[in-house]
Amino acid sequence: MHVVRRAGGGMQRHVATILSGSRGRFDHTLAASADFFDSLPKAAAEGTDFVRVDIGDRIGPTAFVQAVRIARHARRARADIVHSHGYKAAVPGAIAARLAGTRSIVTGHNLFPADASRAAKVSMRLAARLSARVIAVAPALAASLTAAGVDPRKIVTIPNGVDLSAYGAGSRRSVRAGLNIGDEAPLVFCAARLTEVKGVGYLIRSVALISARRPDARVLIAGDGPDRESLRGLARRVAPESVMFLGHRDDVSDLLAAADVVAIPSLAEGHPLILIESMAAGRAIVASRVGGLADTIKDGENGLLVPPADPEALAGAIMSVIERPELAERLGAAARRHAEKEFGADRMIAATEEVYLCALS
């Protein structure tokens, strides 16, 4: 039984990959919100039993009420493992597993905040103590959990994975034509939830510097979130002709095929799927030197790293890729090789299944 808070983006795709990829070896029940289940790909939803559980963004007394409900569902499903995804689901999921007399696994998908409240740290330590294993999707994330007091012997690092065959086959020309962008225009792509921590505002500020040297450059921003309108306003002020907001998109692989460079300007980051997807697509990446981004990108080898919250450095790195096609090609090829070695979906699924089997034994 997978227990998931209200979420989309990378966490949803991660869960969907496990649901569809390990079917046949494990049966799956999903305890999540209705909109989470409804937006799953068909391959993940088919054959997955669903029970509605609404876990919000705060940990409080309701977590124990949710735990009782989840435990009831787990007993009915005869679940062998309760696998909670995200820190908000960890506490009710781990308690539910104990109440149901079964095993608990927790996966952290983002860095555990260094400035988290004492209550949040205590809750995470409790969930970890009640769990057979805590999966971290990047070494930096594992380190953040250890810093919060989680026993490092409980932590296993399993990087996110994607279907590598889905990337690299899109048509650059047709995608650009659909966006009314010419073949020769430099195109920067960013896919992120529109919140402060993703650093999209710094990317928008960098566009004014990029446009001064390449007025035809365009920046595509895919994603939605609470900062959408403020970021649109910023773009209108500093680069009204250069930034396009696409909203939520399900065709990221096509958009990557059209891009010359991918920007990931996060202020803090675990191991975002857009990083893996960009590498799988063989794109040159410019990213902040934070968290799982710095774990994965070797500066100058398979991407470029810049200080976070630094529009000038971001613009300079993006322009170096735009103005040096041979650099873009070399970085993109190295990124693809790294993805093939480390980030295949089959690899992630096999490692997760091994955690399940170890928990059961």
Short description:
It is built from 16 helices and 13 strands. It folds into two domains: 2-161 and 344-360, Rossmann fold (3-Layer(aba) Sandwich), CATH 3.40.50; 164-342, 3-Layer(aba) Sandwich (Rossmann fold), CATH 3.40.50.2000.
Please provide a written account of the structure.
There is one protein chain. By secondary structure, the protein is an alpha/beta fold. The protein folds into 2 domains: 2-161 and 344-360, Rossmann fold (3-Layer(aba) Sandwich), CATH 3.40.50.2000; 164-342, Rossmann fold, CATH 3.40.50.2000. 48% of the residues lie in helices and 16% in strands. The chain has 16 helices and 13 strands. It has a 7-stranded parallel β-sheet with strand order 3-2-1-4-5-6-7, with helices on both faces. Strands 10-9-8-11-12-13 form a 6-stranded parallel β-sheet, sandwiched between helices. Strand 12, helix 13 and strand 13 form a beta-alpha-beta unit. It is elongated and about 65 Å long.
Span between N and C termini?
Answer: 18 Å
Fraction in beta strands: 15-25%
Average pLDDT number:
94
pLDDT < 50 runs, ≥5 residues: none
CATH superfamily of the largest domain: Glycogen Phosphorylase B
CATH class categorisation of the largest domain: Alpha Beta
Q: What is the third-level CATH name, the topology of the largest domain?
A: Rossmann fold
Annotation, overall tally of beta strands = 13
| Structural class computed from helices and strand pairing | alpha/beta
Q: For the report, how would you describe the main beta sheet?
A: 7 strands, parallel
Instruction: Give the strand order, joined by hyphens, for the main sheet.
Output: 3-2-1-4-5-6-7
In one word, what is the shape? elongated
Helix % is: 40-55%
Strand and helix order: EHEHHEHEHEHEHEHEHEHEHEHEHEHHH
CATH architecture of the largest domain: 3-Layer(aba) Sandwich
What is the number of helical segments per DSSP (H or I, 4+ residues)?
16
Question: How many structurally independent domains?
Answer: 2
Q: What is the CA-based Rg, rounded? A: 21 Å
